[in-house]
Amino acid sequence: MSRAILTLNTGSSSLKFGLYRNGPEPEMLLTGQVDGVGGNARLELERDGAETARKVDAPTHAVALEQVISALRPHMAGLTISGVGHRVVHGGPKFAEPMVLTPDVLMALAEFSPLAPLHQPHNLAGVEAARVAFPEAVQVGCFDTAFHRGHPWVNDTFALPRNFYDEGVRRYGFHGLSYDYITGVIATEDPGLHRKRMVIAHLGNGASMCAVREGKSVGSTMGFSALDGLPMGTRCGQIDPGVVLYLIEQRGMDPSDVLAMLYRESGLLGLSGLTSDMRSLLGSDAPEAGQAIDYYVFRARREIGALTAVLGGIDALVFCGGIGENAAVIRARIVEGLEYLGIGIEPDANLRNDREIGVEPTRVMVIPTDEERIIARAVNVALSERAVRVAE
């Protein structure tokens, strides 16, 4: 039997997965996702360029994982799952490197659930379900905050009494697995660019940007939680904290209702009153849809300028994520007016989603991200270290 690695990326209403054959570099066998967990769920699977999709019953993430295991079974001949890798959104101040998820580690990670309520509880529920399904497999957590560890202090702190920083109230940054993958691709393909200054824009249902110098994160649009920075599908992005105080103190809203609104009812959905899906907004004639897109583009352009200031200049702008990789019209609108930074795009290359879409002097690139591969590599390392310990 060959050893295989399963990766699980658990969201609030989705479960992405990947199956890899274990080796020096994990070999991707198939990928897929269960979308709409808790509602009208749909299981999508892709192998060798062929895609299939069907409706499934998945009221919980545990049941969704059962559906995934059932879908994987026909593809598991000669394979055994020896490791399961999990995306864990929040590592807090304690965790940076990938960790074997022991009961003590899981207990510590549960303490960070209030900092990422849309993701952390579901991430950990996925771990528990995987432990039941694969009791002999090594369970490894990879943290979305890890890439941003080591920020300069001024990019980590808030102007609050100092004791709060020591207690963990600081800017963490997220989408680290995506940024790790993108910088790794650039380091391999273009070492010269890797040593320079980049702004990477991870634009999807969740969205953020990261300032990168010499392959290291030095600034992020996201902060203490995954709410900050850019507007997202259902999350508000940057907001004056006085608004939150006003809603609670003057409007009498319960804090739990404010939390639900900021995470689930805001962003593109809240601005448009229609949908959180950028494709649907682009296809709509409703004025509110256009206004939601206008705000999204405005904030993206603003954050590129801010992160360029953090870097002291910019040598490349890199788009990734579902919107960043596929929505040519959004990329074009974002870069409008950025000529002062040397940023412009070649229209035909942009429409084709080419790797290089910019005009000189600042490079503009589209690089598909692969968070699951970063997770699979981490599991691979954990399995190798375990094998060494057993041999000793």
The total strand number stands at 13
CATH architecture of the largest domain, by name, is 2-Layer Sandwich
* Helix-residue proportion: 25-40%
Portion in beta strands: 15-25%
Uncertain residue ranges: 388-392
Quick overview:
The protein is of the alpha/beta class. About 40% of the residues lie in helices and about 20% in strands. The chain has an 8-stranded mixed beta sheet with strand order 5-4-3-2-1-6-8-7, with helices on both faces. Strands 11-10-9-12-13 form a 5-stranded mixed beta sheet, with helices on both faces.
Identify the notable features of this structure and list them briefly.
single chain; 392 residues; Nucleotidyltransferase, domain 5; 8-stranded mixed β-sheet; 5-stranded mixed β-sheet; 16 helices; 40% helix; globular; disordered C terminus
Structural features, described:
The protein has about 400 residues and is an alpha/beta fold. The chain is built from 16 helices and 13 strands. It has helices spanning about 60-70, 105-110, 120-135, 155, 160-165, 175-190, 190-195, 240-250, 255-265, 265-270, 280, 285-310, 320-325, 330-335, 345-350, 370-390; strands at about 1-10, 15-20, 25-35, 40-45, 50-55, 80-90, 100, 140-145, 195-205, 205-215, 215-220, 315-320, 365. The longest helix has 25 residues, at about 285-310.
